[in-house]
Amino acid sequence: MAVQRLLPTAEATDLLALTREIARDELAPRAAGDEAAEKFPRDAFRLLGQAGFLGLPYQEEHGGGAQPYEVYLQVLEELSSAWMTVGVGLSVHTMSCYPLAHFGSAEQRSRWLPEMIGGELLGAYALSEPHAGSDAAALSTRAARQDDSYAVNGAKAWITHGGVADFYTLMARTSDEGPLGISCLLVDGGTAGLSAGPPEHKMGLTGSPTTPLYFEDARVPAERLIGAEGHGLKIALSALDSGRLGIAACAVGLAQAALDLAVDYAKQRQQFGRPIIEFQGLEFLLADMAAAVHSARATYLDGARRRDAGLPFGQQASVAKLVATDAAMKVTTDAVQVLGGAGYTRDFPAERYMREAKVLQIFEGTNQIQRMLIARHLAKA
């Protein structure tokens, strides 16, 4: 069922209508098949690029859509309700463009950003390492300055779009000064010495490749340093605040899809001579599911509106990520319960929704990390 949205402009209303059309006609019909085949839908991202979706929150002067984050996130939600791999992929791509858009020089933005958000290229965000996940400051991949380039050596882990991305926003160590020794580099996907390992075998989001990345004396031109040396961790954490809102929106989209499926099934399934939606036990379960979805949507919209107003939104981003992804896990699990035995089969997407929901509590900062961040904000208040 279509979500009733309060959108700020007529343009935003038209954009959401287009999003729903693409989600309904182009994405939803193939999601189950491509996920089962573990097939990455690169063509779907080209379609989104042609529609202008790969640069929605970025400046018009560089070819972006200049949409408020409030609107961009609702686009993400709609796409995720049809196909989670595509929604998460768009969120990752948008976050991969963030460091250049917000910390790059005017010359760098003019040179590279139009192509990155123009629709043909797809990005990836390379922060995590085998021994540096939640502890991002512990990363060890090194970028050593050699004349007019950096020689990069090391390994990254859990990279969404690894091996298929056209560019990687890389955080690497340029000195031994702990958190102050990390820098941000914009790496072309075809760089010699850069390679991707085999995709991880995951329980969900099987259409989205997640791989390690290996850098073996990969030469990155010094002009591709974003911001100053040593500013990489600050850039990375700033990007993650916005990225967490993106994941929250994706989680709400998945939860909404699970709720819609459960309600439709409960209306049609009959037991004891009447639809099961008329039994109070299921009525209350569905009501709790709906309340969780509505509440989660409110948290990400609150964070987005603060971001759009230029206000601090880090705490709100953590709250949204925590609340929305926990809600997605619960709502998708309950959807399986509503469908009963049918929910445990692949004849319905409920089991896929449940598998996909789990990773939302893990990436972009685990939900345990979000609780820690929220508590730190409270301590500073």
TrEMBL record:
Keyword Repeat part of the UniProt annotation: no
Domain (Acyl-CoA oxidase/dehydrogenase middle) ranges: 124-217
Alphabetical keyword list: FAD, Flavoprotein, Oxidoreductase
Entry-linked InterPro entries: Acyl-CoA_DH_CS, Acyl-CoA_Oxase/DH_mid-dom, Acyl-CoA_Oxase/DH_mid-dom_sf, AcylCo_DH-like_C, AcylCo_DH/oxidase_C, AcylCoA_DH/ox_N, AcylCoA_DH/ox_N_sf, AcylCoA_DH/oxidase_NM_dom_sf
Swiss-Prot/TrEMBL cofactor(s): FAD
The keyword Oxidoreductase is annotated on this UniProt entry: yes
Gene3D superfamilies associated with the record: Acyl-CoA dehydrogenase/oxidase, N-terminal domain, Butyryl-CoA Dehydrogenase, subunit A, domain 2, Butyryl-CoA Dehydrogenase, subunit A, domain 3
GO molecular function, one term: acyl-CoA dehydrogenase activity
Domain Acyl-CoA dehydrogenase/oxidase C-terminal intervals: 230-378
Pfam family for this entry, one: Acyl-CoA_dh_N
Signal peptide range: none
Domain Acyl-CoA dehydrogenase/oxidase N-terminal: 9-120
Family: Belongs to the acyl-CoA dehydrogenase family.
Protein name in UniProt: Acyl-CoA dehydrogenase
Organism: Saccharopolyspora elongata
Taxonomic lineage from the root: Bacteria, Bacillati, Actinomycetota, Actinomycetes, Pseudonocardiales
